[in-house]
């Protein structure tokens, strides 16, 4: 764990840049540029379908998808590309802290504006956006509270914030290299209050731990073992790939989907 901003960004980028551009994750995400757990229902065939389903669910919290939208922690731009199914590319801004990921985003959604920016220090004027989207990243921010206040500030009155987020136990917040100790949230009531204190009204809060985290875990462990059976993984590579998943079983408490609104 760290609360030094430069060290945190360095550690987050080293982890994601290596994983996201490696051949294994590209294959796992069926050639798409997503990096998230996705939303798995009975019959969901692959990770890209699950990630599209997660986006559909989150954007479903925005009743009228129009105006200016910001994709916070856009990764390699696949969430941004999904947003562009509903919004004009010219109306989409996307931010991230990795230049390498942003460069890929610019390639796949050329009409959107991708910028290097920290989610807790948004360089946009007040009331710039009709919607802010943030998929599976707020647990890295220093802090989640600062991000919620910034998201509220850049939203127009009545604008929507939709996000997926992961709550972990306090030992993981304290010990994990890519976590911030001040981000520890003991339960969903305290989590709700963070939004209220930032000026946001929650319309939807879905505990999607089963559909997102646990089904993703079931799928990726099976997927990796199939690869091992077919000789695509050595034993060492299998163990290296799955170790973080085994650890997450111990510390992930909730995977949540939130649809919130700035007070009109
Ligand atoms: C699990 S990935 C999700 C990426 C993308 N939203 C997706 O669903 O494919 C987490 C992302 O959060 C980004 N991130 C972490 N801390 C950030 C921060 N303080 N500001 C902006 N982005 C951040 C990482 O660079 C990474 O791209």
Describe the fold and architecture.
- The protein is α/β, with parallel strands linked by helices and 264 residues long.
- It has one domain: 3-Layer(aba) Sandwich (Rossmann fold).
- 44% of the residues lie in helices and 20% in strands.
- The protein has a seven-stranded mixed β-sheet with strand order 3-2-1-4-5-7-6, with helices on both faces.
- The termini are far apart.
- The chain binds S-adenosylmethionine.
- S-adenosylmethionine binds next to helix 1, helix 4 and strand 2.
- The site of S-adenosylmethionine (SAM) has 23 residues, from helix 1, helix 4 and strand 2.
What characteristics describe this protein?
alpha/beta, Rossmann fold, 264 residues, binds S-adenosylmethionine
Question: How do the strands and helices of this protein lay out in sequence?
Answer:
Blueprint: H1 5-20, H2 23-28, H3 47-59, E1 69-72, H4 78-83, E2 92-96, H5 99-108, E3 113-116, E4 129-135, H6 144-154, E5 155-168, H7 170-175, H8 188-197, E6 200-207, H9 209-229, H10 235-251, E7 252-262
Parallel strand pairs: 1-2, 1-4, 2-3, 4-5
Antiparallel strand pairs: 5-7, 6-7
Helix pairs in contact: 9-10
What's this model, at a glance?
Helix content is 44%, strand content 20%.
SSE order in H/E notation? HHHEHEHEEHEHHEHHE
Low-confidence parts lasting 5 or more residues at pLDDT below 50?
none
The count of β-strands is 7
Tally of DSSP helical segments: 10
Lateral strand order in the biggest sheet: 3-2-1-4-5-7-6
Distance between the termini: 37 Å
The total domain count is 1
Q: What fraction, in percent, of the residue positions are helical?
A: 40-55%
Q: Under the CATH scheme, which architecture would be assigned? A: 3-Layer(aba) Sandwich
Measured by DSSP, the beta-strand proportion falls in 15-25%
* Class based on secondary structure composition and strand pairing: alpha/beta
How many strands, which pairing sense, and closed or not: the largest β-sheet?
Answer: 7 strands, mixed
List the bound ligands. Answer: S-adenosylmethionine
Average pLDDT confidence is 94
Highest CATH level, the class: Alpha Beta
- Superfamily (CATH H level) name: Vaccinia Virus protein VP39
**Gyration radius, in Å:** 18 Å
The CATH topology name reads: Rossmann fold
Question: What is the 3D shape?
Answer: globular
